[in-house]
Amino acid sequence: MNFFSTLASCKKRFSDSAIQRFSDLQLNKWLYMLFFASLLVLSSCNNQDSDKENVKQDSVSGLNTDLKLRSDVCYEELLENQCVSQVPYFEEQLLDEIPGYPADCTFKVKVKILNCDNPMAPGSTQFFTLSFEVIEVNCPQYDFEVNEILFNPGINVPTVEDYMTVLYEKLYRRFEDVYFDDFKIAFLCPGATNKWFYITHIRESCSRFCVYLTGREGNYIATPIPCGAGCCKTESRMCFNRETGKIEKTTTTTPLTQNQCDPPSPDTPFGCFIATPCKFICTQ
Description:
Helix content: 25-40%
C-alpha cells in the first residue's frame, strides 16, 4: 500500500470515527433534552395537582372563614361589646363515646372559644364557642352510614342535612361535657355559692352543610356554612353533682334576631362534593 492509499484509509477511518462520535453526541444531546423535558412535565403536573389540592383546601377554608365571620357578627350582637378585651382562641378536641356510635369511634373537632366573666352572674364563668366543625373522623359506622346516604338513598335513609344536624348536636353536647370536666370541681351542685359554669354556642340561625372528601382518611366530612340571615344562641348551664358523679345541665336555645333562610339553590360551593339545602337550625 502506497503512501496515498494509507493516507486515504486513515482519513476515512478518522472521518467515520468523527461522524460516529458526532452522532453519539447528538443522540446524547437529544436524550438529555428529552430527560429534562420529562422532568419539566412531571414538575408541572405535580404543581397542578398541588394547586388543585390547595384550591380545594382554600375553598373549604374559605367557607369556614365565612362561618367564622358570621359567628363573630352574631357574637357582637349578643354581647354588645362586652368581653372585647378577651382574645378568642382555637382548640382541637378528640371526642368519643358519642351516642348512637361505638364507644371507640372518634371525632376530632375544631372550636373557636372565648371566655369572660358573666355580667349577669358574678363569680360564674362564661365560655362562648364561635365556631364548631368536624375536621377528622375515625369511625367505620359513620363512613358506612354517610356512604349509604350519599350513594344509596332510600325510604328509611335520612337526608344528609338531617343526619349531619343530629350528629353535630350530639358532638356539641359531648364537647360541652368534655370541656367542663377540667372545671367541674369548682362548680359543684348543689352548693351555697350558687356558681354555675356557662357555655354558649353562638351561630347562624340558618345553615347548610358542605360535604367534602378528605385526603387524609378518605372519608366524607361535613362542614356547616351560613345561609340566610339571623343569629342563634344555645346556652348550657352546668354544675357537677359529687353525690351522683354526674353533670347536671340545663340547655336553652334562643333566636337572637329575625331569621330568614335562603331559598333552595342548585349551586354547589366550589370545593364541596355536595351542599345541602339551607335549613333553619335554631331549634335544638
